[in-house]
UniProtKB/TrEMBL annotation:
Negative regulator of class I heat shock genes (grpE-dnaK-dnaJ and groELS operons). Prevents heat-shock induction of these operons. The lineage of its organism: Bacteria, Pseudomonadati, Pseudomonadota, Alphaproteobacteria, Rhodobacterales. The keyword ATP-binding does not apply. Residues 115-335 form the Heat-inducible transcription repressor HrcA C-terminal domain. HAMAP family: HrcA (MF_00081). The keyword Transcription applies. This is Heat-inducible transcription repressor HrcA. It comes from Albidovulum sediminicola. InterPro entries: GAF-like_dom_sf, HrcA, HrcA_C, WH-like_DNA-bd_sf, WH_DNA-bd_sf, WHTH_transcript_rep_HrcA_IDD. Keywords: Repressor, Stress response, Transcription, Transcription regulation.
Length: 358
């Protein structure tokens, strides 16, 4: 399947304009856009028949769809993605919206939680969507970790910190994980977590992986050098040590060494899975737009999510704000609103001033 830049490169100026006007019309009204409507707004004088032909070509590319035989066209999810990635004109935050967002910083209730509640309410009111506010990541030492499987592609990590703070984070687990493997990962992590923050725990696991890798390489090197074994996909997560002529190994290798190699493999794979868990639990994306089924948390409702991280003074991601709404969100207006809000929250939590500095 082609990616959106490749598809965009195939479109000539006429096709791009027809496509852009269909998407903008749909985002504005929620209704299919017909060829006759487009002939009145196109910069080039075209007949309705010509516009229909262009729309059919765009439909063939998977960018437009016809809800009914005689109706106009609406953008597909791929079409919306192409529009957002390559054709959308992002506006600036209006003075009124800016004032509404800035006002959230001056509420009567003190504290970060109260401020973030006000930010969420302001975003919801301005955009007419649902707001999403992820509070700053906690960097206290961890007391307990638990993974809970919610679905094959979704899991919950429960983090209990030494200061009593509790966080729940939803993430997509590495493939092939089962509830029992998640319990095993949690037990392993809890044995190491004492006194360590999440970042320190992840670093510790990475060091253990490197040590195990060195031990495995050292033990297997003689087999490889003698031609009795070879690495396949060496260093990758699905690597294998392929042993040739097993009967010849009796004279060259102690049975205990082969068992040790197998044990090291199992241990290395297990630690890699656990490191992946931690990476997913801790990671934060940059500014992102998730459309329809790309949006794992809300894909069943056909929603889109516009989300932006906010950072502390050290430029480290500590939380995020976003807006959830129908796929026909006014992305060009909402993207700068979410971005501005994230910068404002980050500046405030870092001890800076309000919007005029942004």
């Amino acid at each position: 399947m082609q990616n959106t830049p490749e598809i965009l490169a195939e479109l000539n100026e006429r096709s791009r304009e027809v496509f852009r006007r269909v998407v903008e019309g749909y985002l504005d009204t929620g209704d299919p856009v017909g060829s006759r409507t487009l002939t009145r707004t196109m910069s080039e004088k075209l007949s309705a028949a010509t516009v229909r032909n262009v729309m059919q070509d765009l439909e063939y590319l998977g960018l437009l769809d016809s809800p009914h035989v005689s109706a106009g066209r609406v953008p597909t999810q791929l079409g919306l993605r192409l529009f957002v990635d390559g054709l959308m004109e992002v506006g600036s935050v209006s003075d009124q919206d800016r004032q509404t967002i800035d006002a959230t910083l001056g509420g009567n209730e003190p504290g970060v939680s109260a401020m973030l509640d006000r930010v969420g309410a302001a975003l919801s009111g301005i955009t007419h969507g649902a707001s999403l506010v992820l509070t700053p990541k906690h960097e206290a030492p961890i007391r307990h970790i638990e993974f809970v499987s919610l679905a094959p592609d979704r899991a919950l990590v429960v983090l209990v910190f030494a200061d009593g703070h509790v966080e729940n984070r939803i993430f997509t687990p590495p493939r092939g994980q089962t509830p029992s493997s998640m319990r095993e990962a949690a037990n392993f992590l809890n044995a190491l977590a004492e006194g360590r923050t999440l970042s320190e725990l992840r670093s510790h696991i990475r060091k253990q992986i490197a040590a195990r890798r060195q031990e495995l390489d050292s033990l297997a090197s003689e087999l490889v050098e003698s031609g009795l074994a070879l690495w396949e996909n060496a260093g990758e997560s699905h690597e294998r040590l392929i042993v040739r002529g097993r009967s010849n190994l009796v004279d060259h290798t102690e049975a205990g060494d082969l068992e040790r190699i197998r044990t090291l493999f199992d241990d290395l794979e297990r630690k890699r899975d656990i490191a992946d868990f931690l990476e997913l639990a801790e990671s934060g994306d940059g500014v992102r737009i998730f459309i329809g089924s790309e949006n794992k948390l809300f894909s069943l409702s056909g929603s889109s999510l516009v989300v932006s991280p906010y950072m502390n003074a050290d430029r480290k991601i500590i939380g995020a704000v976003g807006v959830i709404g129908p796929t026909r969100l006014n992305y060009g207006r909402i993207v700068p609103i979410v971005d501005y809000t994230a910068q404002l929250v980050g500046r405030l939590l870092s001890g800076g001033r309000k919007g005029q500095d942004l």
